[in-house]
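Sanity check

After download, print the first record. It should look like this:
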Amino acid sequence: MGSGVSKSQQTRPVIGYSEDGNTSDAQVPYYTKREEYNSTGATATSKLNENGPTLSAVVMSAKNMAALKKKEKEEARENILLEHPELADAMDSVREYLQEISNKRDDDVTRKNMNYNTRQTLDQIYSLYFDCEEQEHKRILGDQLSQYNAGQICTDYLKVLSEDGINTPTKGYDADCLYTVRSVCWNYSDASLEFAAELGRTGSFSIFIADIVSFKSQLDDDFIRRTIIEPSIAILHNCAKAPGSKKYFTIANALDAIIPYTNVTYQELKMVAMMTLSYIIEEKDNDKISADGSMIEFILMYLKESINGIDHKYEGFSAHEIVSGIMHLASNDDNKLKIVKQGVLPLLVELLQDGNDAEKKICAKTVWVLSFKDENKPLIQEQENMMELLKELAGKSGKAKDAAAGALWVLANVERLEKKRSKNENEEENKALESKSSENAEVENNQQQPANDKTRGHVMISYQWGCQKLMLRVKDRLTKMNYRVWIDVESMGGSTLQAMAEAVENSAAVLICMSPKYKDSPNCRTEGEYAYKLGKPLIPIRIEAGYDPDGWLGALQGAKFWVDFSNLVAFEVMFSRLIKELGDKGKGDAQDLQLSPSQASRVIAKVPPRLLERRKPVNNWTKEDVLNWATKNQIQSRKVKSLNGESIVFLSSIKLSAPEFFYKYASEKLGITELPDLISLCRGLERLEL
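Expected structure tokens:
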């Protein structure tokens, strides 16, 4: 939720501490994502040339590109810090504060309370948020908190002080400490997606959800609502926007806890609950929130009011974040037509025409998502000024260019699809006739001609960027076995949709890397559905453990069995299965290292020799290899150094799939209790070439 108050209105709440650690004058600070409450208690408002050069000559290394983007991000941050030394000072303070808290946390957890100094230190971290005038500065500070495991620290204290959500205090010192922790979580989860994501990984959701369930009956108690319920739901809303967070909401059974708040009389709280659900609802549960359309109607009312409001805001919600929620709600196909029929299109047109760059981008992306519903296409095409605005945005540089081009592709590419379908059918018929004729033809001099079918086409990897490292590993293994591989290593945008289409059209098989992020990505859906409609052989690849695709992605999978790459320990077994599924599709002869310019514009099938440095697989590491790796990454734990390669791979796997267990295991079994040691271990695992 964006802040609804202007800078001139903001006043930072000040906590007065008495000697016993309680707030003086029974003054309870209302820490909020909105940054404060007013006096009434209400919130203040790359291409191949014509000669077909070898692939290794035109490859862009994904690793080099990732390193370049990381370097650019770091340089941008350094420039900000140079221009704003006060921000650099704040970051130094954050490091010191978190180290102080970490040194005392174990004792606090043992005693099941928060010491007075820690409470003051957390309040200082909270206060630093208000010292940042620019939103980007707040994001940098929030990212810094995440880097030093502040999310884990907050979660630990939430659990200790509330007895794991079973007995949350409403009065006294422990209750005041919880206000402080919630305040840090609320503000920084709004500023930083990295911090929001860490709150999910560390298990905090169960506490916030327990609180909104336990205190629902006390909703009309102004104190309870403002200090416990509203912060808890708002934090959940902020975290719902973080990539990869949906699974943690599922684990915490968040849906049934939040849905009752969509019917409360407190309008703003009702809106926060609805927007949170828009990010976390699964296809199978969609009927729980959209049966009568009232939720969509309420959200569209907020959007209309925000468009008419100052700075495109209404009761603290910006038009941008409302449209973003609508887009995520539309990810479920059952909602697409309802959203259009209830009048979203004129509102999107208004923002496409008069909004800022960010608003235009999210609106164009929302139109793209809505366009996947066939019944919506004529309604969108007939909406006054819609197509003209999309064409205008797609034709000029800007944030909305790629999204507008994507929407136009889905809306206006029927003719291309039909031509390609017809061409494919004719090719199949001709191939069948040629095969029949060749059965009766003599082979001159008993010499067989090279089989063109074997080298025709390539294996296309369709994936969402979150699994790029894994897919590049798959790509490398395939190319070593002479498969021709097409994989996008840049951000595939509207300007390269032509390249995507050609890659699909010229593919012999398409690997569909299934995950929640893939399902929610309009880019990925455009690729996947185009391949499906062209009748290309699809091989489902499971990326996330336990993920069972539904909706359009489930339909794409059909009755096919996936190749499960969600467990790195089983990589070799699964890769063998992938090869069995592929057969000769996309496989070329050893000397076949070229593709025609019509086949792709972003191809990685061979990597320059300097990038193909042979490394021993981590799974095969000896204890000596592990020791060298631990030393290089400054990992001090003797128990880590005694592990073998297979254990290291498994440790890396559970860090992603079961973070709570990972951190608990690291502390209790590996003896890693200090923050610097935990940081070294995590960074070492992230640098592994698995």
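If your output differs, re-run the checksum step. Summary of this record's structure: Strands lie at 313-314, 317-318, 458-462, 485-487, 507-514, 538-542, 563-564.
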